[in-house]
Amino acid sequence: MMMNRVGRQRVARVAVLAATACGVLAVSASPAAAADGPTRKELTADCASGLGKCTFNEPVLGQAFLGKFRQVSDSLYNCSSSDATQTMSWSDAVGSTDSVGVSVTAGGNIAGIVDLSVTASYGHTWSSTHTESSSLNMTVKPGEVGWISRAQVMQTVSGTWQTHYDSPKWGHYYWFWKDTITGPAKNGTDGKNNVVVVKSRKMTAEERRSCGAEDHQGRAFVESR
pLDDT (tens digit, 9 = 90+) per residue, 147-196? Predict the structure, then answer.
């Protein structure tokens, strides 16, 4: 019979208590737990490489929220005297970071371990990355620069990492540390939706001077990000 979430949590707590009785240390939130102990970065690297046998226990999903807007297209500069309209392509790749801002999508086993834990607890997969692209018509007023920005629905997942070594490392078989990972969520999660918008602003003095260049004079031009 499949164990429910409460049952899994009780088993995980018992396992933690049993391991503690055998000699376990938790890593502090500071960069280094002790002079002769490991840093979270070192332990995470062992989880990513497989040197440490790691699990992400009792994951708790936070409320979804809309992430920050960021430019996802090239910029369209309008040096002409009339509105400039152009179809602009955009693309966005969003990754995940842990509680100290380190990427967890740069390879290794971390994303897979978190996904396995979330799937077991919530019955749906967790993705560490999201990539999306499309195109949009953009109209820019004379003397302005425009671009496309996008905001991704994000969500946190908090839990406790446990690593087990076949032989003691830093004096112990087991190490534990709490972590919160922030990553992209499925569009519509908790009623939040991804947003794509066209933004514009007045050109700076330097940008206006560039309009006088032979290649740009009296027309609109695209500049890569």
Answer: 999 999 999 999 999 999 999 999 999 999 999 999 999 999 999 999 99
**HEC readout, the chain:** CCCCHHHHHHHHHHHHHHHHHCCEEECCCCCECCCCCCEHHHHHHHHHHCCCEEEEEEEEECCCEECCCEECECEEEECCCCCEEEEEEEEEEECCECCCCCECCCCCCHHHHHHHHHHHHHCCCCCCCEEEEEEEEEEECCCEEEEEEEECEEEEEEEEEEEEEEEEECCEEEEEEEEEEEEECCCCHHHCCCEEEEEEEECCHHHHHHCCCCCCCCCEEEECC
The predicted model scores a pTM of 0.80
pLDDT tens-digit map of 8-43: 444 444 444 444 444 455 664 444 444 568 999 899
